[in-house]
Every structure is written in C-alpha cells, then in structure tokens.
Amino acid sequence: MNDSIFMRLRHAFGEPMVERDREGRPRVLPDSADGVAELCSLAHSNGWRVRVEGQASWMPADAPADIALATGGLSRIVQVAPADLVATVEAGVTLAGLQRELVSLGAWLALDPPGRPDRSIGSIVATGTAGPLRHGLGPVRDHILGGTIVTGDGRVIRAGGNVVKNVAGYDLTKLQVGGFGAFGVLTQLHVRLRALPALRATLVARGDRDLLTHQARALMEKQLAASALELFSPALAAESEWVLALELTGTVEGVESEVARAMESAETPWTRLAPEPAAALWHATARGALAGPVTFRLGVFPDGQDEMIDLLEDHLDTGLVSAGPGQGMLRWSGDAPVDALREVRHRTAEREIPLTLERAPWPLRSALGHFGAYREGVGRLVSKLRSTFDPDPTFAVALEGGPDE
Amino acid sequence: MGARWVRHRKAELRTFEGDGLPTHAATPRLVVLPGTRDEVIAVVRALHAAGCPWVARGAGTGLSGGALASEDSVLLVLTRLNRILQLDPVRRRAVVEPGVVNARLSEAVLPFGLFYAPDPSSQSACTLGGNVAENAGGPHCLKYGVTTNHVVELEVLLPDGSLARLGSPQGEAWGPDLTGLFVGSEGMFGIALQITLRLTPLPQAIRTLLADFGTVRAASEAVGAIIAAGIVPAALEMMDQECIRAVEASIYAAGYPVDAGAVLLVELDGQPDAVAAESGQVEALLTRAGARGTRSASTPLERARLWQGRKKAFGAMGRIAPDLVVQDAVVPRSALPDVLEQITGIGRKYGLTVSNVFHAGDGNLHPNISFDHRDRDLAERVHRASREIMAVCVAAGGSITGEHGVGSDKLEYMSLIFDADTLAAMCDLRRVFDPEERANPRKVVPVHYCREWR
Questions:
Q1: How far apart are CA A159 and CA A169, in angstroms?
Q2: A82 touches chain B (CB under 8 A)
Q3: Contact criterion met (CB below 8 Å) for A284 and A238
Q4: Lower CB count within 10 Å: N or C terminus of chain B?
C-alpha cells in the first residue's frame, strides 16, 4: 500500500516534496498551508492516517500512519515587527533559529520549553510545553495570538490575529495550544514578543528539598518579580543536591534591586551565576528531560508539590523533576512501565490533579493517552471537537488512550 | 421561581431592551431573574425542552449589543447569583457566582493584600460572568493580562441543560483548553455557573505619571519608546485633545493641560526601588520623545486625581451630546499615529465629534462618537463613520474589537478580518457546545456563514 500512496503523492506534490522515511513510509514536506490542506484532504478522502512530525526531537515520530506530514518545509520567519512586538512564523521554524533572528532585532519570545533548542514552534504550541519562564511570563497560550490551522479534512482556518489584544470571534487558537495536534495541524503562528531585557540575572541555591521549597515560598511572600523560579532534582541539575534557580529579567536597575532583595535574609545562600554558566544551567535542565523516554506534567499547586514528588518516588523514581514552587506545575521525565504510569495517573486524579503525558513512545501514548480521564462533561465535548476538526480521524494522535486509538 | 422574578409586562420588558450600546435595542419575550444555581439549571432545561432560544446577561454594561434578546428569546438576568463562594488567599484563588460585580471581588480580597486584575471601566457595575463571556479587558491589562489570563476553572451549564467542569483550580487545562475556548464566547456556548479566578498580590508601590504632548504623533512615539525599552507599565493610556477638553469642562476636571494635543498616563507598579528606577527612565523617555511637561503622583490621593479624568472621560462626554458610541478596535502600536489621523479625518468628513481615550500600550483604540440617537441622519452618519473606522484599523493590520466583543454591533465587520472558512469553523465550534444554536442566537458570526455549503 505504501508504494501506491507514495506514487500518488509524488504525482500530486511533485518529487522533491515527497520522500520515504526510514521505514519506507511516504513523507511529505509541504511548503504552504494550501499544500498541507491538499494533503489532508487527499488523506481524508482516501482514509489514510497521517502523523505530523516537526523536528522529531521531542515527540517520537512513531505513531502508526500511512503518511508522515513533516513541517520542515514550513520554515520561514514570515514577519517580525519589533516595534509592535509581534512576529509571524511558520510552524516548522525552530525556537533557536527564531530567537537568533529576534535578538538581532532587540526582541525575544519568552518560551523555554523542555527539550532541545531546535524544537519547532509548532511542536511547542501543540504540546503546550512551557518551561521555567511560565512562572513570571506566562504559559504557552499567553504568547500565541493566532495562526493558520489545517483541519483533518483539509479546511484552512486563519484564527486570531497579529495584534496583542483581540476578542473578535471565538478563540479557535486556544484549541490548538496543548491540543497535541488532534484538532488540526498548525502551519503558521502569530506570536507575542517581548523587548530583549537589558539584564538577565540567574541565582541558584543548592541543598535540601524542604529548605529550598521554604526559600521559594519566602520569595513569593516578598513578591519578588521573578521571570523564572524552578526547583530541579539532583539528577536533572546534574548535581548532588536539589537546586532552586531564580531568573530575573528587565531593566538593569529593576533587576539589580530585585537581586538585592532576593539575597536579603536567604536561609540557603544564593550564588549569582555569570551569563554563560547561567545559560548552560537553563539549557541543560531543559535538555535533561530527554534523558528518559517519558515526560509528563502534573497540574499541582505549590503546596501539593512535596506530596507529589514523594508519590513519584514511591511509584516511579525521583528521576528528572522540574517543579514550580511559586506558581505550581511539576514535570517528571524518566523511564517507567505503562502500569506504573497508569497507577500514578490514577493516584493524581484522586487528588484532583491532572497528569498530561507530554512525550512518550507510541505504545505508551496509545495505552495512556495524553490526557487520560476527563472531568464532568468534558469527554463528550472533546469527542465532538475531535469529530468537528478531524472527522474520521486523519491525524494519528492518542488523546485518551485505550486500544482504539 | 415565583412571579416576582419573571417579568412579562411591556413596561417591565422595556427596562431590559438595551445594554451599554446606544445604537441597538431589542425587547425580549420574557425576562427571568433566577436566584440560585439550581434555578438557572431548571430554567435552561425548561427552555431546552421547549426549544426556546435564550440570552444570559449580567449587569448589561456591555458595549457591543451582545446581551440583547429579541422577541423570540428569553432573557436570563444573572445578577442575583452574586455570592463569592470561596476565597483562598494562600493559593490566590476565588470561586464566584457569575453575578458578582467585578470591583466587589477586589474589595473582598483587599484585606489579604490581593486584587482581581482585569479592570474594565464599568468595573463598579459589570459582573464577572459578563467579563468571562466577553473576555473583558481594562487599563491594567497591559501588564496583568485580560480576563482569559485569570480564569482557571469554570463550571458551565450547556444549552442542553448538561453540566461540564472546564479547567482546574490549579490552572492546568486537564484536557484541551476548553476554559480558553469558553472565555470570550459571548454567551453562545452556555452559562458559567461557577468561576474560579486567579488573584494577584497588590503591588507595594505605584507611581503614576502624566505627560503632556503637543501632538498625538509625539505621544504615540513615546509609547513605542517605553515599550521598546523593555518596560512594561501597569497601564499606558492616551487621551486626545477633544477628550481632554471634555474632561476639563466637566465636574471631573483633573487638571489636564487643555492646550495639549494629547496626554499620556503611565502607571508603574511593583517594588519601591524598581518603581523609582523605572519612573526615572520613563520620565527621561517621555522628555526625549518631546513631552512638554510631566507630573508625577505617588500618593493615593494624587494618583486618583490623575486617573479621575481618564476613568470619567465617558461620563464627561455626556456634556457634548446625549449619546455616545464607545468604539473599540486594535491596531499595531506602530500604526497608532497614522490611524488616529485617519480617524480624525473620518470624523471631519461626516461632521462628527470624535474623541479618543484608549489603551495606547496595547494599541487598543476607543474612538468615541458623540451624537443624539433621535436624529436619524446623525445616527446614520455615526454608523457609516464607525464602519470606515473599522476598515482603517483592519487595513493597518488590526482587529475590529480588542475588549468589547462582536455582539450585534460588529457582526457586519467580521468578514473584514476572517475568511468564509474560518467563520464557518467558528460556527462549527459553537455547535459543539450548542448544537441547536439557542444560546444568544444571531451574535458574533453572521448566520449565512454558518449555513454555507462547503
């Protein structure tokens, strides 16, 4: 079957745009939303399953499918407006590539997701994976103003806009942020930028987990204006102790005055890192998530984090933990069998804490689903959304898990 | 519910025929004012069984005709559901019913050193349920974000009478971001029965600066310079000369310079040291951009005086004419000076008084047109001018609404910014929540886009 699909795709898209992946499956690299729409429409009408691939550096490109749709052909930075602090980029643009371009224009996109810096913007948005900067600068959804979405049956939706405030029509973009590609494939995004801060300062404290959690709470009570406040497990920080890391960004005066306040009466002393070691720490902890094949996040309040870390220790291992002691959220990476993960999800659900599977090999994804169980009335809405935006599913995505996905 | 809470006489219904938009009115078939969550559920289930369309509203302060119910629809007024159900100062969360007035929540959490950040100008009257429906903004949303950034969980009643719990108190979506979809859906997806909101610590220091400029262009350039310097003020507001004069001639006079082409209000908040440092920087930027003078206020009394004119500007315009259309559009910040000039030109062309008072920091314009709705010709000119203003903003790369919503007023402009497939997708999305299209019918997306064969 692969061969006949391959030939038909080559006929439709031309040779350069269609290749074979390692398993001989046709892989198409459209270079426009219309191309993606044509592919989805063709796949939908033929009943072919499609898996969407970015750089394949976060989600493994292993979902069973007839065709791979790679966003690598959608790699243009369409427009950057530094004065308006907005940009339009195609979904296959890498975060690192975009940041390089933005720096030269005095701007940045305040996202620092787990994984490698070459993750595509589409992957970051579809998985809703925010890093430590979510503490002060917001989750992924806060940075996305709109974009172009192609539905499973090949309709093109241009949602939102390219301005920083906008309530025209329903917010279709929100469905895509953290939707894991189940409601369409993103081809282009409008993003909100920030002015490049004049100064970034990173402070770290090392020690006992309880003491560091306490220290983080003290900073929250002081209302320290931090951009990031994150607690890393020893394995993730590649150190012998837990590490609390604090990042301040802004004007020189603003940052320096906050650094001074943070330093005041700290029980565990802070060390201020020079710019290079600071960047190395944030990069290493982001990449560290990849040391295990599975990553999930828990939506937990700061005061529930200790209990959750203990629970993970009991059922999995301490592993690679990154937690937000200021605003909440906990991310675990490592290796674990499906039963253990299922048990953890069950335990967290009992405590009304959602577990979102951010990354795992297909057998785990399909068994567990990215979301697992939903709350009252939500499952029905999700399945209606799925059939609206990806009727007779074209996209190989396991939202809920189970044998059918 | 008892006869007292069901209004059906003509005179009673007339009380509910408008919202804050003076150009549109509609008389509902019936008005019901449920007093409890269970009553709302019972009413919606009864309406569902009867196949009757309905419109839910709060205080009716909206500015887009979004809360109007026409003869075929029942109006559900939710202002009696006004309890703050739960306050958790440690986790900084509040659970409220939809009829709680915005400002009342901030008052209630003040003793804990917290506030609720989104502050629409109508905050002393508007309800949080209405804020959720409209994704309401306000001056301080530049730094703190709009309603959607503060809603973490919703218990919603869908139009078929079933319930759904969206989001989580922690803020993690727990599935796709249905909370994000629901906020700003203008009452067409259902009713938020319980709303869990994020609360924000009160800043320890606040400083407000007033800068006076010879021209709107110079003031706009100052806005760009502040943002480019990486400073995020809590608020960054502009008033043009027309507006300044209206304010200064009214009882709300705030001492603004009446010969200024425009004034900027810049508010900085945070830690005392950081605020002091940033105010120095902002003052220098304002001067460099050509400010003729700056005034600074840090005591609550002085600050209140500087803000008074801004907050009461709409009231002050009552002196000019009996009616006021508060328009709402967004443009890229860099397009502000050109767009404002074009808006002035449009006003002149139609012989209308247009004044501007708006959220300059995020390019959210509010051109205000004063008129008398009894004058048919004048009302028609207001409509035509509004349409041209929208076209100018869209041509500059902007949007037709930044915080007031589409409602009935902006239906005709939706096709200026969205293509037919996108509008059809919006209709599809609406049908996920409301397959029978009974909640707030005929708003937001022009009906023919929903019927279109693809």
A1: 9
A2: yes
A3: yes
A4: C
Cβ–Cβ below 8 Å for B414 and A164: no
Using a CB-CB cut-off of 8 Å, the residues of chain A touching B165 are: 375-378
Cβ–Cβ under 8 Å, residues B22 and B325:
yes
- Containing domain of residue B31, as a range? 3-77
- B89 DSSP 8-state letter: T
Using a CB-CB cut-off of 8 Å, the residues of chain A touching B183 are 171
Q: Specify whether B193 is located in the same domain as B162.
A: yes
- Whether residues B187 and B251 share a domain: the answer is no
**Is residue B453 pLDDT above 70, yes or no?**
no
- Nearest alpha-carbon partner for B334 in B229, B411, B220: B220
Considering only CB atoms, which chain A residues are within 8 Å of B145?
138, 142
Q: Which of B166, B398, B423 sits opposite A378 (nearest CB)?
A: B166
| CA-based torsion, A24, A30, A36, A39: positive or negative | negative
Tell me the residue type at B142: L
Whether B192 and B98 have beta carbons less than 8 Å apart is answered as: yes
pLDDT at B273: 87
Quickly count helices (H) and strands (E) in chain B: 16, 20
pLDDT (tens digit per residue) in B278-335: 999 999 999 999 999 999 998 899 999 899 889 888 889 888 899 999 999 999 999 9
Asked whether residue B197 falls in the same domain as residue B214, the answer is no
Residues B197 and B90 reside in one and the same domain: yes
Taking an 8 Å cut-off on Cβ atoms, the answer to whether B418 and A303 are in contact is: no
Task: Name the residue among B91, B145, B334 with its Cβ closest to that of A84.
Answer: B334
Q: What's the pLDDT score for residue A316?
A: 95
Looking at the domain assignment, is residue B406 inside a domain?
no
Separation of alpha carbons A377 and A387, rounded Å? 16
Taking alpha carbons only, the member of B450, B12, B443, B10 closest to residue B187 is B443
Threshold 0.95, pTM exceeds: yes
Regarding whether B308 and B337 lie in a shared domain, the answer is no
Domain total for chain B? 5
Cβ-defined contact of A378 to B418 (cutoff 8 Å): no
How far apart are alpha carbons A238 and A224 in whole angstroms? 27
CB A101 within 8 A of CB A118: no
Q: Is the ipTM of this complex over 0.95?
A: yes
Nearest to B439 by CA among A387, A391, A389, A170: A170
Q: What distance in Å separates residue B266's CA from the closest CA in chain A?
A: 17
Model pLDDT, residue B103: 97
Token reading at A51? 């898996």
CATH of the domain at B371: 3.30.70.2740
Predicted local confidence at residue B1, as pLDDT: 86
Which regions of chain A are under pLDDT 50? Answer: 404-405
- Single out the residue of A81, A56, A52 nearest to residue A69, CA to CA: A52
Q: How far is A22 from chain B (nearest CA, A)?
A: 32
pLDDT, tens digit, 9 for 90 and up, residues B204-233 = 999 999 999 999 999 999 999 999 888 999
Are A156 and A150 a contacting pair, CB within 8 Å? Answer: yes
- Whole-number Cα distances in Å, A317 to A311, A328, B141, B196: 9, 20, 42, 33
